[in-house]
Amino acid sequence: MSCFLRTYFVGAAFNTRGMQNVGLVFSMEPGLEVIYPDPAKRAVARQRYLSHYNTHYFWTPLLVGVFLSLEDKISKGLFPANVLESVKDTTVYTLSAIGDSVLTGSLLMFWSLTTALFLAAGAGWAALVWGLFWFVSLQLFKLSTFLMGYKEGLRLISRLRQWNLINWGRRLKVINALILVLLLYLLWPEGKSSWQWLAGAVALGLFAWLVSRRHVSREIMVLVLLAFWWCLPWLQESLGVAF
Q: What does the pLDDT look like over 204-234, one tens digit per residue?
């Protein structure tokens, strides 16, 4: 449990050379003291975690659990010491990419958008309860993955593929898009017609498509929007139409 609690400080000594490596060593230290009572052997094991380490913060408890499981087996001669570096190279950065895409890019955005939706609807208490629910869920996720990593070791790494996280992240992005449309509807000023709201939603979708698929610069799109806004009074006067 000391190792688990220390994972909350994995980024406290972030540096440009090893990224989160000092925080990783700090998290592993209580476990290494138990696994390697001999200070000399413990110093050798500690060196394995001083190399470059950087992953999504939500995955660090799972990885620390897996690393502790591997160190226990390495100390008993069941695994060679170089297996740890192999696991780090293949797992840490893969989980980092999944974390950025699914946990931050999808799930965190889902919480943000739904919270904004509650606030736009005037349900402030619901937004607070919703935030507390996700905060507690995150702590349970960290604790449960840490325990699973320590108990199952490498088997958990193989089992992660069955979670199908990438596809779940894609589905959640679609749901986020629908939530964003609903949020725009709630935030749209009163007195504006529905076709104006629809045009705004379509324009936002076109903006996202041009940036993500056609790689059009965001700055250029913003300049186009500002130019249109600046020319809007002239267009209204010339066409005799109120936008």
A: 788 888 888 888 888 988 888 888 878 877 7
* Whether the Cβ atoms of residue 56 and residue 95 lie closer than 8 Å to each other: yes
Q: Per-domain residue ranges for the chain?
A: 2-187, 191-243
Instruction: Return the pLDDT at 240.
Output: 66
Which tokens is 6 given?
């220390």
Contact call for residues 208 and 221 (beta carbons, < 8 A): no
Residue 186: its pLDDT value, please? 85
Tokens of 42: 């413990």
Q: How many angstroms separate the CA atoms of 20 and 10, rounded?
A: 6
Beta partners for residue 15, in sequence order: 19
DSSP string, the chain: -HHHHHGGGTTTT-BTTTBTHHHHHHHHHHHHHHH--SHHHHHHHHHTTSS-B---GGGHHHHHHHHHHHHHHHHTTSS-THHHHHHHHHHHHHHHHHIIIIIIIIIIHHHHHHHHHHHHTT-HHHHHHHHHHHHHHHHHHHHHHHHHHHHHTHHHHHHGGGG-HHHHHHHHHHHHHHHHHHHHHHHSPTT--HHHHHHHHHHHHHHHHHHHTS---HHHHHHHHHHHHHHHHHHHHHHT---
127-149 pLDDT, tens digit each: 999 999 999 999 999 999 999 99
Q: Which is more confidently placed, 102 or 89?
A: 102
Nearest-angstrom CA–CA distance, 195 and 193: 6
